[in-house]
Design goal:
- It contains one helix and 17 strands.
- It is mainly β and about 240 residues long.
- About 10% of the residues have low confidence.
Length: about 240
């Protein structure tokens, strides 16, 4: 079960021997979201020794000291307490490490400030605006609220500028979003996909009673200079399942 509980500990460097080692799949247009241990090798390579793995421990270096993330294997703790950390992106232009915290089901993204060592759980993978001042995250993980959020990089912190739970007005119950692109610095294009199950009634026997309709639709977020605005997809495409 998904849990938003990242546990990072800043400790002195004592480990000597270390081995240096997104997607919204239904919609091909969406930007990638690295989210597994297989995505870690290129991120560690890009880190150039400033991030290291020693078995179950991931260590990232900051100007305030090292920050360690330690896995909790499913064989060691109850399944609902499993935690598996992976460095999935090194973003030196933004002074950030991006760590994915995977649970038994679902997961969350954590940002570590390279200058201050501050750890921020942002839920979804950060996708930055062209000017680098903001990023959007989309959370569609199991058992989590479906959240769209815009974050802003400030001098001393990462602040959530706007957030919206689209559970109450999404087109269908099983509806998720992913980011297609930023259109300038004040607009984000989103792709959505959902599944509508139609019950033909008790007169239809067996599997033929239910029919699945797959829905896709595009929408956007827009910044008017004061706040962000979301609207439901206006044109939904239907495909019989």
């Amino acid at each position: 079960m998904s849990r938003r509980a990242a546990r990072a500990i800043i400790i002195p460097v004592t480990i000597v021997s270390m081995a240096a080692a997104m997607s919204c799949a239904a919609v091909a247009a969406c930007l990638p979201k690295p989210s597994s241990r297989t995505d870690e090798a290129p991120a560690l390579k890009k880190a150039k020794g400033r991030a290291l793995r020693d078995r179950s421990i991931l260590r990232v270096m900051t100007e305030a000291g090292p920050v360690d993330f330690k896995d909790k294997g499913c064989e060691e703790v109850p399944v609902v307490e499993c935690e598996r950390y992976s460095l999935v992106a090194a973003l030196p232009d933004h002074n950030l490490w991006v760590v994915y915290l995977g649970y038994y089901e679902g997961g969350s993204y954590i940002l570590v400030d390279i200058k201050t060592g501050k750890v921020t759980d942002v839920g979804g993978f950060p996708l930055f605006s062209p000017d680098g001042r903001r990023f959007i995250t989309v959370s569609n993980e199991p058992y989590d609220l479906p959240i769209l959020a815009i974050w802003k990089l400030q001098q001393k912190e990462i602040a959530k500028e706007w957030g919206y739970d689209f559970a109450t007005d999404r087109p269908e119950g099983e509806w998720s979003y992913c980011v297609e692109r930023w259109a300038g610095n004040n607009r984000v294009i989103l792709e959505g996909r959902g599944n509508l199950v139609i019950d033909k009634g008790p007169g239809v026997v067996g599997a033929d009673r239910f029919r699945s309709i797959f829905l896709t639709g595009r929408t956007s977020l827009r910044f008017d200079g004061a706040t962000w605005h979301y609207r439901q997809p206006l044109r939904l495409k239907r495909e019989a399942g």
